[in-house]
Design brief:
homodimer, 467 residues, alpha/beta, Urease, subunit C, domain 1, TIM Barrel, 9-stranded mixed beta sheet, globular
């Protein structure tokens, strides 16, 4: 007897055969997908015996989306850092704000990011870097666990204060020493890693300039020993290339590879300024790439060579990045940006297909997080991470090409239901795990307290006159 | 006594002083804005005396958006033309489909485009080119007029069959001779131009290759005589530059200027492959540009030099283009694409500000259409074209920077109410002028009949297996 039975329209399975089932249905029991197929046949078994029947024949059914690059601590910073390139963006806006967080505000920011992700169909995400100041345990206990979604949470590890050039130092509130940051990551690992098959602790070495080569090697060794992941920004701006070339005589991917950071459990983020040879290193070592087109465009970082990476066999996944670099956490919108960026970059509309984009937001991302045995597709035996998208709307009509419409026309608002691990987390756009109205009432207060403490972003950034 | 009184949150007026009014309000009477100001003060006059009070204190109030480049006849073609560059896109997909329309299907397509625009906050649009085959009178009577929105409708004028190169000829169903197409435009002009201050008939010369120089000059003269507008695609792809250079020894803007097509009542669309000198011609002649970033990216056409144009004084407005090149008609989403494209193109995040983007979707567009005396901003004396956007949502929080959130995080779904000419056209997301459910039921049938007649787009375009 199924717990939830979804009678849908088109099911985009992302299974190994990449089947699309018209008039399909899915049955879920004890958190697991137990049946996928034609609605007509599955109806016989499940229609009148299941606890909950979701009758969504005008919906597209997709695996829950997986966001491979999230800064939860930037949700409260939305709109606080326009018109600045990466290094100024970090050192003059983001780090001073992030360095002033209290754990209370950190929980509010985490909840805001998560509720936005749920409402736009994300069921799993990779947080790129928590530090002690934010209070990671409270974020996990009060924001992540109760939300119901899956999360791989990287904790920052660092022992230097610089970023790329020596002048650009971290805000003091974010500085930790190597011993503390490494040990706390391991502590969190032992406390939370693998919890309910929904929570994983990763290593998040800071970018070149904030970590010594010795510590990088320690991180690589420790992550391998604990069989967990590593994620870090790499080759996001040209300055990154200059830095590793000047200091180590190596290009960014060569540098990371030399330190032992490449491999199938690693997710490098952005990876814009790389050569063919570096792409080949990524492919050969099965290192994963998180592509964040919005952020790369907004900050003027550049256009990643995603179509080249896919051709050369690199596993590429999608990410939204954070509040002030996107400025949303909506992976469906990110899919469109990803689909548009490659044709522009190459002036070739054949450079990427919508199927590849959908894979980047689902099964490729599950692979990147090392959890494709439990999620990333709709197939029997996997945990039930499933979203339903209402296609009975003008902008998704006519329904001749649902994959195309998903990528080019849908957005997070079109997601109606979200199921994680067989449990409804959002039903008909109502989030069931977080009190959204209460949260929205807390957000502005928490944000303004933080802005005032940091002395940044207090006034709206506009050349127009507010009266 | 006001007909409608809007008690809002932030009012982005776009008036000459570009005021933003916190806790603002707007009063409307007989279709005209009669009062704009602080809610506290306006409440005294209008709160208890108005027919309708829209209590939307958690909304941002904006002038209705104006879409300066729409192909209504491509709404039914959504998803029918991926992975092709402009010339193949036109000749192998779009023109054969458009050349097979029946007037019935044309009405359905027009309604679909319009309902999508209303639902995403567009109150005025510029259609780029109707032809006789579509039945322009029926489109106007059955789709445009009843919808309640304002529209400038260009009718195509042409006397050649080629496009850029001689091999790429128009589909026979779309071919008209110069005399017929010019006369019918003038007929439509006399029948509809100026109707209720909501409908205008423009000249829509086809792109270089489909119009002789003699006819271009006739169009320019006639449009000037009738004091109406001209809109045409220009310099969209590099082939356009090659064509005018090879055949006339002139670059595209020089070519158009030489033909008398430049001027304040002209909207050139795309305008990607242009030189500084050509931008200066546009500025000097006060010619308007419609920027369509999504379409330009998807088709791999290129990145228009919008920040350079703004710097040199060109009036730039926004447009979505059509169903298979975007693939939505959502101008709020287009704003984000426009904001992201310039930083990427220049690798400089300072290249464009959100205020400029908002102007491109409102007041600049009203100027481009020559109707800025009646719409494009919220100020006393103008017709009431107003939309309200719900900011009480996770992705628009915290509300420290509403202009930034509008551009980077909002989308058409966030629009709750749409008022055109002082009348509610959408109330709390329900479109009041078009039966949306009935239309959605008609759309697939009309689309598939059209696809089968044209022999294109019958099967979903996917490499995955549909079962």
């Amino acid at each position: 007897m199924a717990d939830i039975y979804i009678r849908g329209g088109w099911i985009i399975t992302l299974d190994k055969e990449r089947r699309i089932i018209k008039d399909g249905a899915v049955a879920i029991e004890d958190g697991v997908i137990i049946d996928v197929g034609k609605r007509e046949e599955l109806d016989k078994k499940h229609r009148f015996t299941s606890d909950i029947v979701l009758d969504v024949s005008r919906h597209i059914i997709l695996p829950g989306l997986i966001n491979t690059h999230v800064h939860m601590m930037q949700a409260l910073l939305r709109g606080c850092a326009n018109y600045v390139s990466l290094i100024d963006w970090l050192t003059k806006r983001i780090w001073p704000l992030q360095g002033n967080y209290t754990p209370n505000e950190a929980v509010v920011s985490a909840k805001l990011a998560i509720v936005e992700m749920i409402k736009s169909g994300t069921t799993t995400f990779l947080e790129t870097g928590l530090v002690g100041r934010y209070g990671p345990d409270r974020i996990i206990e009060e924001a992540v666990k109760p939300s119901g979604v899956r999360a791989a949470l990287a904790r920052h590890v660092m022992d230097l204060t610089g970023y790329a050039t020596q002048e650009n130092v971290l805000h003091e509130g974010l500085i930790e020493d190597g011993d503390t940051s490494l040990k706390d990551t391991i502590r969190l690992y032992h406390k939370y890693h693998g919890w309910m098959n929904k929570l994983w602790i990763w290593f998040g070495p800071r970018t070149p300039g904030a970590v010594s080569t010795t510590l990088y090697r320690e991180i690589a060794a420790k992550a391998r020993e604990l069989e967990t992941g590593i994620t870090m920004h790499l080759a996001e701006v040209r300055e990154d290339v200059e830095y590793t070339l000047k200091n180590f005589g190596k290009k960014p991917v060569e540098f990371a590879h030399w330190l032992g950071l490449t491999g199938p459990k690693t997710v490098f983020v952005h990876v814009i300024w790389v050569t063919d040879e570096e792409i080949d290193i990524l492919a050969k070592t099965k290192t994963n790439v998180s592509h964040n087109p919005c952020s790369n465009m907004k900050l003027g970082s550049g256009a990643a060579r995603i179509s080249d990476m896919l051709k050369r066999g690199v596993n590429v996944a999608l990410g939204t990045d954070g509040g002030p670099s996107n400025d949303d956490y909506d992976l469906l919108r990110e899919m469109k940006h990803a689909a548009l960026l490659q044709p522009l970059r190459t002036l070739n509309p054949k450079s990427i297909r919508v199927e590849e984009i959908i894979e980047m937001a689902t099964i490729n991302a599950a692979k990147a997080l090392g959890i494709d045995s439990i999620t990333g597709s709709i197939e029997v035996g996997k945990r039930a991470d499933i979203i339903t998208i209402d296609y009975w709307q003008p902008h998704l009509k006519p329904l001749n090409n649902p994959l195309s419409h998903l990528v080019y026309s849908a957005s997070g608002h079109d997601v109606r239901n979200v199921i994680v691990d067989g449990k409804l987390v959002m039903f008909e756009r109502k989030v069931l795990t977080i009190d959204e109205e209460k949260l929205l009432n807390e957000v502005d207060k928490a944000a303004y307290t933080l802005y005032e403490r940091a002395g940044i972003c207090i006034e709206p950034d506009t050349v127009w006159r507010i009266m």
